[in-house]
Write a structure and sequence with these properties.
- The chain is α/β, with parallel strands linked by helices.
- It is built from 13 helices and ten strands.
- The radius of gyration is 19 Å and the shape is globular.
- It binds NADP nicotinamide-adenine-dinucleotide phosphate (NAP).
- The site of NADP nicotinamide-adenine-dinucleotide phosphate has 30 residues, from helix 12.
Length: about 325
């Protein structure tokens, strides 16, 4: 299966196809006040982001039932549902809303997972296209996971979702879960992991890309701009985001300067931006990046990552510089082996 090809999931009662484009859009920020500074006045702009993305072929949107802070929990799904219903332009039929169901400690039966899927579909106002297990409980409560996975399988068999994916799984655990679904005749569509020039662990050390290729699973790269660090707009002596990101970036920026310089040099050569080069690197590695975007300007910029390719020498150069950095991005604690 190539990225642009539809994946036909014949055993699903919905009997429909999922389209995974070469790039998607992340929506963690849409409803998150604390980390991302969201407020409701941004909604009109976010709808424009959605419309522009779909019209330009970015038809995959990533959300989660845990997205949205405090009273805004579920906001990202609600917005995506509304935007997709109101969208009337080109590419409408290819829209793929992928949500992630959290492995909350109080969610441990297959029925609770079915209920969670139904609740997400209600917020979306349409069936979920791609339902993903947000993280594995293998590292801290292995007994919890079986029921949750079985519930995901039930959602698929009951025709309530078009496809199933995972998130934050390593190769060992992925193979086990793949077997579990295979025994029910259920295909696994995708796996999403933290992956960027500042976070290569999942592919370089865990070898996940090879395993995904072997199993016919698409690898989705989340936080492909390292939470905004790789855009080049932040600097230790200048602009820094508020809150946790500001603290983290202040520490990391002096250590990642060689990478930012290298990105800028390559960007100049192609008349591109640093973000476009960083996202194109993910595409060159055979992954589907899902950068978050909070404005039309950012989405326009990110769209410029598609339709061209870095050459092999540039990819190698970026790899080399990234490998020699003193510090990298912190790894998601839920990532398994
Ligand atoms: N499965 C998981 O456990 C998991 C974990 C994390 C994320 N995700 C998914 O992956 C998506 C993407 O990751 P992310 O949002 O963490 O980080 P990211 O994509 O690396 O960075 C996104 C942030 O960078 C800034 N930005 C984006 N495009 C830009 C541009 N062209 N120019 C300048 N600034 C730009 C924006 O923030 P500012 O403007 O505020 O800088 C934006 O919110 C999430 O939205 C979520 O859907 C999944």
């Amino acid at each position: 299966m190539t990225t642009e090809q539809p994946q036909t999931l014949s055993q699903n009662p919905l009997n429909s196809s999922l389209f995974l484009p070469s790039m998607g859009c992340g929506t963690w920020a849409w409803g998150n006040r604390f980390l991302w500074g969201y407020d409701e006045s941004m909604d009109l702009e976010l709808q424009k982001v959605f419309n522009l993305a779909v019209s330009q072929g970015v038809t995959l949107f990533d959300t989660g039932d845990s997205y949205g802070t405090g009273k805004l929990n579920g906001r990202s799904e609600l917005l995506l549902g509304r935007f997709s219903r109101e969208y009337q332009g080109i590419g409408q039929e290819k829209i793929c809303l992928g949500t992630k169901l959290a492995a909350y400690p109080w969610r441990w039966t297959r029925h609770s997972m079915i209920a969670a899927g139904k609740a997400s579909a209600e917020r979306l106002g349409r069936p979920i296209d791609l339902v993903q297990m947000h993280w594995s409980t293998a590292n801290y409560a292995p007994w919890q996971e079986g029921g949750l996975l079985d519930g995901l399988g039930d959602l698929y068999e009951q025709g309530l979702v078009k496809g199933i994916g995972l998130s934050n799984y390593g190769p060992k655990r992925l193979k086990q879960v793949y077997q579990r679904f295979s025994s029910r005749g259920i295909p696994l569509v995708s796996l999403q992991v933290q992956y960027s020039l500042l976070s290569t662990y999942a592919v370089t050390e865990l070898g996940l890309k090879d395993v995904c290729d072997e199993l016919g699973i698409k690898l989705i790269a989340y936080s492909p701009l390292a939470l905004g660090l790789l855009t080049g707009k932040y600097s230790e002596n200048g602009l820094l985001p508020k809150g946790f990101r500001g603290l983290l970036f202040r520490q990391l920026l002096p250590k990642i300067r060689p990478l930012l310089d290298c990105l800028q040099e390559i960007a100049n050569h192609h008349s591109k931006t640093q973000s476009q080069v960083a996202l194109n690197w993910c595409i060159c590695k055979g992954t589907i990046p899902i950068p978050g975007a909070k404005s039309v300007k950012q989405m326009e910029d990110n769209l410029g990552a598609m339709g061209w390719k870095l050459n092999d020498g540039e990819v190698t150069e970026l790899d080399k510089v990234a490998n020699h950095l003193e510090k990298k991005m912190v790894q998601n604690i839920f990532q398994t082996n």
